[in-house]
Amino acid sequence: MQTSRHLLRPLGGVVFLAVAFWRFGSGAVVDALRGIDGSALALAAAFAALTTVCGAWRWVLVARGLGADLSLRSAVAESYRSQFLNVTLPGGVVGDVRRGVRHGRAAGDLGRGLRAVVWERAAGQAVLAVLAVGALVLVPWVFRPGARAPVSAGTSAVAVVAAVAVVGAVTALLLSRGRGRARRLVRLVAADLRVGVLSRRTWPGVVAASVLVVAGHVATFVVAARTAGVTAPSPSLLPLALLVLVAMGLPLNVAGWGPREGAAAWLFGAAGLGTTAGMGTAVVYGVLVLVASLPGAALLFVSHRTTRRGGSPDRCVAPAEPVVDLEADVEADVEGAARG
């Protein structure tokens, strides 16, 4: 059953991608790819460096908030490795799991290392969602006379409020009726949020880093759109970029491909820019991100060679995996967070 779920996620991405190419064609995509040049690749690499450093900084803040030491240098190196794995392996999260495991092993607390990555990514997605809703509310929809936003601001606000209400109701239910390990896990989540994400020492930096990460991704999207021949004003592309980034967060993808192309084609079509322009932009974006992640491939190669020689490539790696009692880990962390 577990294996089936793992296979369904990349299969969903394949279906998304196949339907998108079948529906919108591949001719425009080929033309868009021909527009990729050295300047586009250089800009993508520069924006990738910005997002990588900011994402690593966010990870360091969350990890330290949870009581796990992590240097910015190690975080940047691991983030580059993670990005390369995410854009080359199915699911789009393999690299994040890997860096969480490596950090947890190095810190001697596998559970805490994994949770630091989970909360770091969740914080980034939360900020992205807020920015996407804000763009829909504040940015005029000026693509063409009479054009309508594919998702209205009111609908977006209602969706966000509904999602928060559902999460709150589920949490309250677990707190009131949950017993045993489920209740301890809920308490751990609350403690992690309080000390690892929402503390006064952490949340301003997490929000700032997340905003910069989103800005870097949006800038790369605009570069991809220009490379694909889209001439719409950059402010008009802002809400489209944010919504496509939200779609990219869906786990039904193959190394990031699938929902991104489908969402871009639909959004660009609804905005009057043409579905083929959306497909071309999304595919060019994927190629730019892949090329910009190649430093991670080099770091993986160096790490592999160093490990084979018996060394430790950086401080984020431990020579052996400690034995972890997850239930004891949960109880200890809850008690420690309560005391803190």
From TrEMBL:
Keywords: Cell membrane, Membrane, Transmembrane, Transmembrane helix. It is found in: Cell membrane. It comes from the Bacteria. The chain crosses the membrane at residues 7-25, 40-61, 122-143, 155-175, 203-225, 237-256, 263-279, 285-302. Its main location: membrane. The keyword Transmembrane helix applies. This is Lysylphosphatidylglycerol synthase transmembrane domain-containing protein. Pfam families: LPG_synthase_TM. It is a multi-pass membrane protein.
